[in-house]
Amino acid sequence: MTNNFYKICAANGAWFYKNEILERTGLVNHAFSTRIGGVSEGAYSSLNLGVNSKDEKQNVLSNFQLFSEAIGIQTEKMVLSNQVHDDKIRIVTKADCGKGVLLNSDIKGIDALITAESGVALATFYADCTPVLIVDLQKKVIASVHSGWRGTLLKITQKTVLKMTREFGCDPKDMVCAIGPSIKQCHFEVGKEVYDQFVNVFGQPAADNTIQKNGKYYVNTDALNVDALAACGVPLENISVCPLCTFCHNDVFYSHRGDGGITGRMCAVIELR
Ligand SMILES: [Zn+2]
Predict the structure, then answer these.
(1) What terms describe the molecular function in GO for this protein (predicted)?
(2) 108 alpha carbon to ligand 1 midpoint, in Å?
(3) Considering only CA atoms, which of 43, 57, 149 is closest in space to residue 102?
(4) What distance in Å separates the CA atoms of residue 201 and residue 184, rounded to the nearest whole number?
(5) Which among 16, 33, 68, 155 is most buried, taking Cβ atoms within 10 Å?
(6) Is 33 a domain residue?
(7) Domain housing 68
(8) How far is the CA of 77 from the centre of ligand 1 (A)?
(9) Domains in the chain: how many in total?
(10) What share of the chain is helix, strand, coil (3-state, %, to 5)?
């Protein structure tokens, strides 16, 4: 398990992060957006990519253009998820490109996207929840997974790996995974009832990866996602975890908790070259 994330400040002012391990595969273009370098104002300032937020629609579209230009992935190629903190996964193709931002979408209630086609950019959205990007190096299949705490409890990341295995003959040992910026253990405070759910699902590793302080519980969901990936056979050295906390670095990232609930959304996107 490694870090390997680095920041890029694009010429047009948009900031985003990349992961060295994904980049080294030479197979994909990918990015994790930030809130820096867009046109939105107020609570949405400034690179808000949340199509379902109450921000001005035109500003969100302008932000998509800025982000697309910065990362070199056309908005027309993006397929957007419509996340509901569940564990439904959809395989998408070129026929789905543009859905959710430029075109109407029939992709509803989907928290993870998979494709084996190049030129299809899988986009999932965040403001504290955990983005996980996955590449199978041999079969050339990719996935973008939205794993908030509910998704983590449902093991959506592991389910996505298993679906890639089942549907495309992928082998987890050939996969590399990047877990992006999200709310980290320092600020992921939950009550006993949520902590108990983590222990029910993950057992001892949940207890081992939780700090108790003043009657509250701080769960390391990254560690549990890594456990779930390793349990299905992804080599630990192929899993990269971004240490940046969206709440701690609220000036760079949208944070649902840090911004008091009204905020924009960042995007994690990946495309096979
Ligand atoms: Zn923090």
Answers:
(1) copper ion binding; hydrolase activity; S-methyl-5-thioadenosine phosphorylase activity
(2) 31
(3) 57
(4) 19
(5) 33
(6) yes
(7) 5-182+242-272
(8) 33
(9) 1
(10) 30, 30, 40
pLDDT at 121 over 70: yes
Tell me, in angstroms, the distance from the centre of ligand 1 to residue 143's CA.
Answer: 26
Q: Quote the ligand 1 centre to 148 CA distance (angstroms).
A: 15
Report yes or no on 103 lying in a domain.
Answer: yes
Question: What confidence tens digit (pLDDT) does each residue in 182-207 have?
Answer: 999 999 999 999 999 999 999 999 99
Rounded Cα distance between 255 and 95, Å, is 33
| 28-84 per-position pLDDT tens digit | 999 999 999 999 999 999 999 999 999 999 999 999 999 999 999 999 999 999 889
- CA dist 31 and 94 (Å) reads 20
Encoded tokens for 246: 């969206």
Helix axes 192-202, 221-231, angle to 10 degrees: 20
177 domain residue, yes or no: yes
* d(CA 254, ligand 1 centre) in Å: 12
In this model, does residue 18 exceed pLDDT 70?
Answer: yes
In a domain, 158, yes or no: yes
